[in-house]
Amino acid sequence: MAGTYRSIDAAAAKKIFDNGAHMIDVRYEDEWHAGHVEGADRITPGTANKHSVGRADTVVAVCRNGNASRRAAKRLAKQGYQVYHLDGGLKAWEAAGLPLVSTNGGRARIV
To answer: Tens digits of per-residue pLDDT, 13-25?
Structure first.
Protein backbone atom coordinates (compact mmCIF):
# COMPACT_ATOMS: atom_id res chain seq x y z
CA MET A 1 0.00 0.00 0.00
CA ALA A 2 1.44 3.38 -1.00
CA GLY A 3 2.24 5.66 1.89
CA THR A 4 3.25 2.97 4.35
CA TYR A 5 6.62 1.84 5.58
CA ARG A 6 7.80 -0.77 8.03
CA SER A 7 9.96 -0.16 11.11
CA ILE A 8 12.61 -2.83 11.62
CA ASP A 9 15.42 -3.59 14.05
CA ALA A 10 19.13 -3.35 13.28
CA ALA A 11 19.58 -7.04 12.40
CA ALA A 12 16.74 -6.90 9.87
CA ALA A 13 18.08 -3.63 8.42
CA LYS A 14 21.51 -5.19 7.91
CA LYS A 15 20.02 -8.24 6.22
CA ILE A 16 17.89 -6.14 3.87
CA PHE A 17 20.86 -3.86 3.10
CA ASP A 18 23.15 -6.86 2.50
CA ASN A 19 20.54 -8.20 0.06
CA GLY A 20 20.80 -5.09 -2.12
CA ALA A 21 18.56 -2.42 -0.63
CA HIS A 22 19.61 1.22 -0.97
CA MET A 23 20.41 2.59 2.51
CA ILE A 24 19.98 6.32 2.94
CA ASP A 25 21.40 8.10 5.96
CA VAL A 26 19.46 11.31 6.60
CA ARG A 27 21.92 13.16 8.81
CA TYR A 28 24.10 16.20 8.38
CA GLU A 29 27.59 16.03 6.91
CA ASP A 30 29.52 16.26 10.20
CA GLU A 31 27.43 13.43 11.67
CA TRP A 32 28.05 11.33 8.55
CA HIS A 33 31.82 11.83 8.68
CA ALA A 34 31.95 10.77 12.34
CA GLY A 35 30.33 7.40 11.66
CA HIS A 36 28.04 5.72 9.14
CA VAL A 37 27.25 2.38 7.54
CA GLU A 38 29.71 1.61 4.77
CA GLY A 39 27.91 1.68 1.43
CA ALA A 40 25.06 3.90 2.60
CA ASP A 41 24.38 7.24 0.90
CA ARG A 42 24.01 10.48 2.86
CA ILE A 43 21.03 12.66 2.08
CA THR A 44 20.46 15.94 3.90
CA PRO A 45 17.48 15.69 6.28
CA GLY A 46 14.25 16.85 4.69
CA THR A 47 15.40 16.20 1.11
CA ALA A 48 14.69 12.48 0.76
CA ASN A 49 12.57 12.16 -2.38
CA LYS A 50 12.58 10.35 -5.70
CA HIS A 51 15.12 12.83 -7.09
CA SER A 52 17.64 12.41 -4.27
CA VAL A 53 17.16 8.67 -3.79
CA GLY A 54 17.00 7.70 -7.44
CA ARG A 55 15.75 4.42 -8.76
CA ALA A 56 15.71 1.79 -6.06
CA ASP A 57 13.40 -1.12 -5.42
CA THR A 58 13.91 -1.12 -1.67
CA VAL A 59 15.16 1.64 0.64
CA VAL A 60 16.33 1.45 4.25
CA ALA A 61 16.19 4.88 5.93
CA VAL A 62 18.48 5.57 8.89
CA CYS A 63 19.49 8.53 11.06
CA ARG A 64 20.94 9.01 14.54
CA ASN A 65 17.97 7.92 16.65
CA GLY A 66 15.16 7.22 14.19
CA ASN A 67 13.18 10.47 14.09
CA ALA A 68 14.44 12.03 10.83
CA SER A 69 14.55 8.66 9.08
CA ARG A 70 10.93 7.97 10.09
CA ARG A 71 9.87 11.18 8.35
CA ALA A 72 11.98 10.29 5.29
CA ALA A 73 10.51 6.78 5.18
CA LYS A 74 6.98 8.15 5.28
CA ARG A 75 7.72 10.62 2.47
CA LEU A 76 9.39 7.97 0.28
CA ALA A 77 6.63 5.43 0.86
CA LYS A 78 4.11 7.98 -0.41
CA GLN A 79 6.23 8.24 -3.56
CA GLY A 80 5.93 4.49 -4.16
CA TYR A 81 9.14 3.10 -2.67
CA GLN A 82 9.24 -0.05 -0.56
CA VAL A 83 10.73 1.51 2.55
CA TYR A 84 12.09 0.21 5.82
CA HIS A 85 12.88 2.47 8.75
CA LEU A 86 15.62 1.51 11.22
CA ASP A 87 13.85 1.79 14.56
CA GLY A 88 16.25 3.41 17.03
CA GLY A 89 18.48 4.67 14.23
CA LEU A 90 22.21 4.18 14.08
CA LYS A 91 22.34 4.13 17.87
CA ALA A 92 20.46 0.81 17.64
CA TRP A 93 22.79 -0.33 14.83
CA GLU A 94 25.82 0.44 16.98
CA ALA A 95 24.26 -1.17 20.08
CA ALA A 96 23.74 -4.35 18.04
CA GLY A 97 27.49 -4.44 17.39
CA LEU A 98 27.13 -3.79 13.67
CA PRO A 99 30.00 -2.12 11.80
CA LEU A 100 30.42 1.60 11.19
CA VAL A 101 33.08 3.54 9.33
CA SER A 102 34.26 7.14 9.58
CA THR A 103 35.73 9.45 7.00
CA ASN A 104 37.38 11.88 9.43
CA GLY A 105 40.29 9.69 10.44
CA GLY A 106 38.93 8.91 13.89
CA ARG A 107 37.19 5.92 15.40
CA ALA A 108 33.69 5.58 13.95
CA ARG A 109 31.03 6.89 16.32
CA ILE A 110 27.50 8.20 16.26
CA VAL A 111 27.18 11.90 17.07
So the answer is: 999 999 999 999 9
pTM of the model: 0.91
Cβ burial of 54 (10 Å; 0-12, 13-18, 19+) is: exposed
Model confidence pLDDT, tens digit, residues 35-81: 999 999 999 888 887 777 877 779 999 999 999 999 999 999 998 89
- 41-42: strand order across its sheet: 6-8, 82-86, 58-62, 22-25, 41-42
Closest among 58, 65, 17 to 37, alpha carbons compared: 17
Q: How far apart are the first and last CA of the chain?
A: 34
For residues 91 and 65, is the Cβ–Cβ distance under 8 A?
A: yes
What is the sign, positive or negative, of the torsion defined by CA atoms of 90, 96, 100, 105? Answer: positive
Residue pair 65/88 in contact (Cβ under 8 Å)? The answer is: yes
Positions marked catalytic? 63
